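Researcher: For the record, we're logging two predictions in this thread. I'll number them. Prediction 1 follows.
Model: Prediction 1, sequence and structure:
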Amino acid sequence: MLIYSLPETALMIAAAIALDWLIGDPRWLTHPVVWIGRFITWLSGLLRRREQASERGSGASVGSSGASVGLSPLQLRLRGVLLTAATVLLAFAAVWLLWCVADRIHPWLGYAVNVWFISTTIAVRGLRDAAVQVLEPLSRGDLTNARKYVGYIVGRDTDKLEEREIVRATVETVSENTVDAVVSPLVFALLGGAPLAMLYRAANTLDSMVGYKNEKYRYFGWASARFDDVLNYIPARMTGLLIVLYSLLEPGLSARRSFQAIRRFAHLHPSPNSGIPESAVAGAMGVELGGLNRYGEVVSDRARMGWPEQELRQHHIGRTNRICYGISWLWMGAMGCIWAISNL
């Protein structure tokens, strides 16, 4: 369902990557993901209003028979399906409509709208900036601020993390999000331009907001989590191969070890997708990721990935950032090749 020819789409993807490198997410402009998040919050509240009324413990929460009138697991799942479908379809339709209007005004405006919206679905610079925000206080020995900033990008408890665990959390997050914030949106942009890329971004935002396996979202967020897993399935495996390929290009990284780590450790991760980039990065750098994470009162012992040939240090954050940027360079090169071959 390409809205442009493949060579045109490839050229616009290259432009979108460059735009993200240059300006990232400008603070002066409300990001589309913010609007998606607001819609998810509004619709979630609407769909769960009956359940929330029950939770407040009023007399309305109990029927004449004494049975709870809160939502059943099946009702929650069905409403979660509705939330997922409404969010992704609205995101797709909104960007499609804006592109259609812009293209009718002038083809070049259509190109600009397509490039701009694709750039908002990727976050190479955003990932780097978030990791650097953790690294800067860490390099000064300021664990208090390092814990605060790493808490912005991970879901685990961070208030008692020591330096190694702060580094591990940052490396794991950048590795995992190389799929969500780089490869997946670019795959969908290549297939269907900005509208399909935004559909993916909406699905990923849903997963980050409601796709948890806790008491509150176990049923309501089920559809969002599963849909995100499906959309990321092929891009996650592409990311693993791209990390192996990039490891051939940077001294100090091991492509062979990266590939072996994927084969040995990726399936141990509770996510069907996240273990691939995490194990690939761990193997490439010769470090071990995984271990104990705390989420409130819950302790999660994540499978160890990679071999601890060296201790995790601050410089591994910078090296992980370079791997993420390297993946975007490989994409840029591939898009350039598609365009060049089509013009031979």
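Researcher: Logged. Prediction 2.
Model: Prediction 2, sequence and structure:
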Amino acid sequence: MTKLNTLARLSAALLVASALSGCAVLPSSGPSTGQIARAAKAQSAIEAGIAIIDVNDAVAREIVTANRQVPFSESLGEAPPIGSVIGKGDVLDIAIWEAPPAALFGVAGGVTQLTASGATARGTSLPEQMVDSDGLITVPFVGRIQAAGRTPQEIGRDINRHLIGKAHQPQTIVRLVRNAAANVTVVGDVATSARVPLTARGERVLDVLATAGGVKQPVGKMVIQITRGASVSALPLETVIRDPRQNVRLQPDDVMTLLFQPYSFTALGAVGRNGELPFEATGLTLAQALGRISGLDDARANAKGAFIFRFERPEALPQNLRQLGRPTPDGRIPVIYRINLKDPATLFVAQSFPIQDKDVLYVSNAPLADFQKFLGAVFSTILPAATTAAVISQQ
């Protein structure tokens, strides 16, 4: 009888020890929902500047508005073609005609032509005229006239005006041979970085990209950035291809940069698929992200405990949350978005809530799942002890 009492006390002691040790070392894939909620109220979390925000329709609308990509049609506008406005460094071909009898350039009694190239000249030929640093060109019997900032037609009319009284009914044709002033610079992940000249046709974004040989990376991973003066605008290349309104005309001195953007988010915890998952430059919603990770793990996920960990831009947060703590060196604030997937309305919100690059999507374990693991840890310790006690009692 004494031996049985000893075994009973031993079993009880092992049970208590196992319970205590199970609480201390119970395995988990991350913090529980309660631990995250308590962290929001802890002084240390406030000092660290971590905000916990419950995701609802109003919050989702604010995030979507704050992260809206301004289209090229708004930021750059649909400008008219630049035409053939002459600039400094451009090279011009000038042809001057006289009606018979030619008084200045040709033989009397015939029609004569004065050309810069001399290809069909029957009189004096002019060299090609390059617009100098002052924006001027030199024409015989006319002198120096302003060319930069004017169209070829305006230059021709000005030459005619100076020849009145010197030539017989002069007619002047001015042609742009080489464009050195109206160019767009294309750099980045393109086949060939280049300076692409603009013409009166009015080259658009995709025209210039095609001239540069296209992109070297998949279209879905590319972003077009256009720098015009001090302003910078960016859109996914796929958006520009799909929406003709974003294929805007470019202006002289624009810089078009093609950027390879391998966006990704990380899924952790009680989800169907853990890991880092890439997504397209056009963006990803929370609903799409849940689909790509095969949803939640039904056996252990807490549907009320889904979280998105993000370094958020201050302008995307309510004013009272911007002052929570120290921002990161790039000015962002650490935020935890809490998502209750038990609420059917959340599934509508998830269709618009945007996932951002480097987000961490974490789903905590359900309390019952942790309790089941705890029981497993207890029984894995108790059963061998109970078996040993049964063997001893039979002796």
